[in-house]
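Do me a favour: review this protein, sequence plus structure tokens, and tell me how the chain folds. Record follows.
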Amino acid sequence: MFNFLSKSKILLIDDFAGFRQTIKTMLGRLGAHHIDQSSNGSEAIKRCSEENYNIIFCDYNLGDGQDGQQILEELHQRSLMRQGTLFIMVTAETTTAQVMGAIEYRPDAYLTKPFTGDQLGQRLKRLILKNAALNNIYLAMNAGNISKAIAICDEVIIATPKLKYSCLRIKSDLLEKQEQNDELMSLYNDVVNEQPVLWAMVGLGRLYFNSGEVRKALEHFLSMRETFSRQVSLLDWIAKCQNELGEAEKAEETLKEAVSISPKSVMRQATLGTVAASLNNHELAQKSFAKTIHEGTYSCMLEPQHFEQYYDNTREVAQKLDVRERSRLLAETEVVHKKMERTYQNDPSAMAANLSSAALLYSAVGKSDKSSGILSKLTKTLENPACELSEEQATSIDKHLESFTEDGSTDKYLNQISSRMNVIKEEIKVRKKEDEIKVDQLKIAKKTNSEGIQLSKKGQHQEALLKFREAIEILPENINYLLNAAQIIIEYKELNSNADNVIEARHYLQDLISMDETDIRWKRYQKLLERVSNG
């Protein structure tokens, strides 16, 4: 362990400098030397984007800003942790909401304050020994060699039987990435027959759902409830199946139970809001989206449409309230609106869709001046050159504009917005057509490259090179196509005897000079570069 820690890069995330120093001292006594520190989430995320850490200690409570769960969430979402990085959540609190929220993102350990240096050492020793046994799997995964990682999983199971289920869980994730569903089904069934562990049981249900057997998936998940009654991931899947089968009322009840167990999940709150809105339960939907926005203040999972759905459901609720209750709700809405404008001040497309919804809300409750002010801002936002609406956003704005009742105070803005939206919708059509052309080009390039590979296998090297050239002409920066063209020239005398072809191969390799050394194709590139240089 001392040798591992002496070579490890460690990050401590805590808003209390004294506690960071305490852990640093403990780790120093255990042999650690390379220790960085961050006092908040944004600083920690930046460090993780610039450095690959072996171990991350993160306090759950970090004062203002992201908490530990949200940091772990963003590190996963943005793939800022290499496979094998140990993430250890540290906290002085053990409330159900905090523990359940953190566990959902699978930290490697949960360390409760206070703890001694000996306790820290014992916990680290177990984690490091396990990681060492799995290290070759992680190396293959980080290199992008999924097939090799799967093979090593099988080797580790034979060499270290006590890590069997850890390896099988990793293997299941890898098989899922490669869409090897038959092998995945077999793995899950084998695990479940030996021991009904949660991840394998849920995995089976997911496979049923994804293959269209939704009723079978639901029955499977429901059969797990007695054994795993407090597992929110199970409740999420039950609700998803119920909603897919048209049982929205049941899905709503299931999600209400899930958020009562683990309320800090932004996406779970938003899903409950969406299901409730589909049932015209606007009061629950409004509250759910309010919680979505509150919990998502510092979360990467908060999305622009969450604000829009909040406004839409608030509008439905506010119109049915008495004056006093409506004033209270609109005061809360004003706070949310200011948060939306701060959040998307540099994203005019997200801002526009939300402004149209907010303007309709205030218009519906008789706040014409407020509505006019928002519409005025929407007019300017749509004129912003950086405002590039998606088809979905444009449809949403149109829907809101159509719902405005006649009101002389807003007619001017509505006419201006409508005129601008007509132009924007034409621009969207053009972009959509261009995107379709790009997709077609990708398909053609992929097909052409495959034809080149087949021709090469048949010994038709000149014809193969022509195909690789065609693929490169369509996608000139594609690494695989450039390597294929360079390799066929370098390997076959009938091609490399032509000096122009050799120059061509060198140009292809020169185009790849900025390739990342961690890329799985790096070694192939280096070998080709060496051969053409020794030419």
